[in-house]
Amino acid sequence: MSELPMLRRPDRALVPVKSEAEPEERMPSLRNLVLAGVAAVAIGFGGFGAWAVTARLDNAAVAQGTVIVDSRRKTVSHLEGGILKTLLKAEGERVAKDEPLLRLEDARARAELQQLQAKRVGLEAKLARLRAEQNETTAIDFPDDIEKALTPIARGGDHGRARALPRP
After folding, report:
1. How far is CA 106 from CA 58, 86, 87, 131, 133, in A?
2. In the beta sheet, which residues pair with residue 140?
3. What sections of 4-143 are H helices per DSSP?
4. Is residue 102 helix, strand or coil?
């Protein structure tokens, strides 16, 4: 015989086998994570729904109107939009050429006009002062239209009269 030792059957298996006494590893439960996600989505949609039900819509909605003339539709729209003050014609009424259909609130336009007029008066006054400094005169001669302007800046000063320049 050869001198090689005989292979014997080992006492233990080469591959580990789980015994019945060892508990099985369990996958972690995703139930809590799924419930938390569903709750977050429900709270989000519920909050949005509650806001949508209770929110007040006090602002004006900008919309275009259509006027039907002899079975042809014509769209009426304002360039800058605005708030409807008065609707002068009802549906189905006849409208003559150049007859107004509605009136828009003009508060914003009036405020912008007053701002621009005040800016013009201020710039004209500044121009008069700079011309007086350029000519090295001791008095500012304001234009007549500043006195006639209806802005608070024009009413507050003595622009109609010549005023002496302060000397440094």
Report:
1. 19, 12, 14, 37, 41
2. 163
3. 31-54, 107-134
4. strand
What's the pTM?
A: 0.39
| Exposure of 93 in the CB half-sphere (CA atoms within 13 A) | 10
Q: How many of the other CB atoms lie within 10 Å of CB of 143?
A: 15
- Work out the angle at residue 52's Cα, subtended by the Cα atoms of residues 47 and 56, and round it to the nearest 5 degrees: 130
Q: What does the block give as tokens for 26? A: 């369990």
Q: Are 62 and 81 in contact (CB under 8 A)?
A: yes
Asked whether the beta carbons of 102 and 87 are under 8 A apart, the reply is: yes
Measured between alpha carbons, how far is residue 135 from residues 53, 116, 121, 126, 158 in Å? 69, 28, 21, 14, 21
Query: Average pLDDT by consecutive 10-residue portion of the chain (168 residues)?
Result: 57 60 72 94 96 79 67 66 79 83 82 87 88 87 74 54 53
- Could you tell me if 143 and 157 are in contact, meaning their C-beta atoms sit under 8 angstroms apart? no
Which residues, including other chains, have CB under 8 Å from residue 98's CB and lie 6 or more apart? Answer: none
